[in-house]
């Protein structure tokens, strides 16, 4: 429910982060080229960082690894590149030994390589589609800002407690009744224990953008001390708003996150549209047991057929500094 991570969040890379990655890569190249003269031999040597038996590890390989390390500062590039090189040497030694043992011909390994290759190629296609999508206008950004007051103008920091209760439908009324009369979360928990209800509790402090976007408006309407009940397949989930404090975000500060979110949203829509067109033009034939009921489900994979062009970020704590596109997209949930 509200306190669980949403694994479908969209991750938007900021322009500053891209600039930092480029700066790191340039710093590594600069270090590698230091002291090298002109000529083809020196150019080739400048790209070689180490030789492992008969194989070479290049500066390009080091740069590729560094570009995937978020938060690395340019001044840290030289030290980081040396650490990466040592890991690449270990990796190369392992690869050489695996090839000696013919593990690269193992059917399971071949299958994994092919699966990774297909994922990389399809991801590249999705990213190519996204490159053609136009950025949102200032008017569209302002419109989104004004339509989401709970995220921006009326943004709050919430202290929440959640109780997941295992119960049968005939027990719901009893639980709801006690919830109405209980003066505190502790009193309600004691009632659950006394009546042998199995339950788990969770609590956290989260900003508005770190809550599931679909449920944010309902939470924003709650006052301190209020509770909300949601039915689940195994019983009920009770959400308590212990307290909250106002912490609004102005449009200027929210603009980069909104722009990134809307852009990623457009990219996702364009990818789904493109994949649907490919499906409509292709001949897809389901065989064997997969052919049973395939006609009804044929359109369902279209929305999920495209691989994710970006990965989900790690959970971040609430901060006065505010927002990022991943938070806005679907909320990071509470843990």
From TrEMBL:
Q: Which InterPro entries match?
A: PPIase_EpsD, PPIase_PpiC, PpiD_chaperone, Trigger_fact/SurA_dom_sf
PpiC domain: from which residue to which, for each copy? 136-253
Q: Which UniProt keywords apply?
A: Cell membrane, Chaperone, Isomerase, Membrane, Transmembrane, Transmembrane helix
Q: Which GO terms describe its molecular function?
A: peptidyl-prolyl cis-trans isomerase activity
Tell me the membrane topology, using the record's own terms. Single-pass type II membrane protein
Quote the subcellular location field of this record. Cell membrane
Query: Highest taxon of the source?
Result: Bacteria
Query: Which GO cellular component terms, listed alphabetically, does the Swiss-Prot or TrEMBL entry include?
Result: plasma membrane
| Pfam annotation, one family | SurA_N_3
Q: Where is this region: Disordered?
A: 316-335
Family according to the record: Belongs to the PpiD chaperone family.
NCBIfam families in the record, alphabetically?
A: cis_trans_EpsD
Q: What is this protein called?
A: EpsD family peptidyl-prolyl cis-trans isomerase
**From which source organism is this entry?**
Roseateles oligotrophus
